[in-house]
Design goal:
By secondary structure, this protein is of the alpha/beta class. The protein is 44% helix and 13% strand. Strands 3-2-1-4-5 form a 5-stranded mixed β-sheet, sandwiched between helices. Helix 5 packs across helix 6. The model has no long low-confidence stretch (mean pLDDT 86).
Length: 289
């Protein structure tokens, strides 16, 4: 291991000083350089190249668990510890940012509140049984851009989403219209939509649209984000893997990036640990086959 450290830092200092600092001989180091790499080292070198490809395919967002899952899908029979060791040794780290939460709920209203039908049970046996929704704010140099999203708890697929400079009823209505157009639902439906108590979700016209579609309404208890933990998890992923990593000069730039992240990366490429390291689209395809 000492010789590998010296090899990796030859441009930093003289070989003699590095050998002296690590307590090894110069002759021993040069003899190590000339020897034929062991079978284990050769496999490590090939595995490292595969790790780097998987890391780039994951946009630099994957840590060792997802990299390991991607390699297993490609036929590699390596352990997670080996992947983690190679990534650590070669400075390959996820560029995800720590999670943080921005409040977007305005529940200061006197409108009727629906009961909490979900009770933190996000399990589903098939698509279109439970949708969870919320709103997230994204800062741009032009001001806030708001994203409303509806997530199917079966596959974590974002069935409906919409963006606007205004956090209003029209925003969540557009997201719901996309979900209704995107999903074929049996009639009568047994679908539940769960959200917080925000004024957008308690608006009369929004509730009337849900009723017309036969969708049951469920709302979180007051001030309890864990009641809607699955959509909060999606927003945390979105912040950690996109919005906290980028500066958006315009709302349109943010719109473009969000569209690409959701429809291309999140839905069809990103490996989700809760789905057996499959994408939402692949998970739903497996359900239909």
């Amino acid at each position: 291991m000492s010789y590998q450290i010296i090899e990796g830092n030859r441009e930093v200092g003289a070989v003699e000083r590095l050998c002296e600092a690590l307590g090894v001989s110069v002759s021993g180091y040069y003899a190590w350089r000339k020897r034929t790499p062991s079978q284990h080292e050769q496999t490590d070198a090939r595995l490292l190249k595969a790790i780097e490809v998987a890391y780039q395919a994951g946009r630099g967002l994957y840590g060792s668990p997802r990299i390991h899952a991607a390699l297993r899908q490609q036929g590699w029979g390596c352990s997670r510890k080996r992947v983690a060791r190679l990534m650590r040794q070669h400075g390959i780290y996820s560029r995800r940012r720590p999670k943080r939460r921005v409040m977007t709920t305005d529940s200061r209203h006197q409108r009727p509140i629906a009961p909490n039908l979900l009770r933190r049970d996000f399990s589903a046996d098939a698509p279109n049984q439970k949708w969870v929704g919320d709103i997230m704010g994204i800062w741009t140099d032009e001001g806030w851009l708001y994203l409303a999203a509806l997530l199917d708890t079966y596959s974590r697929f974002i069935v409906g989403w919409a963006m606007s400079a205004y956090r209003d009823e029209a925003l969540v209505t557009h997201a719901l219209h996309m979900a209704l157009a995107r999903r074929d639902r049996p009639q009568p439906t047994h679908l539940i939509q769960h959200t917080d108590r925000g004024s957008q979700y308690t608006a009369d016209n929004y509730l009337a649209l849900l009723k017309a579609q036969g969708i049951q309404v469920s709302m979180s208890d007051k001030g309890d984000p864990y009641d809607n933990a699955m959509i909060e998890s999606f927003f945390s992923t979105l912040r950690a893997e996109l919005t906290d990593l980028e500066r958006f000069t315009t709302r349109q730039a943010a719109r473009t990036a969000l569209f690409e992240f959701i429809e291309v990366f999140y839905h069809r490429q990103r490996l989700h640990s809760s789905l057996g390291y499959r994408s939402p689209a692949a998970f739903e395809t497996a359900h239909l086959s």
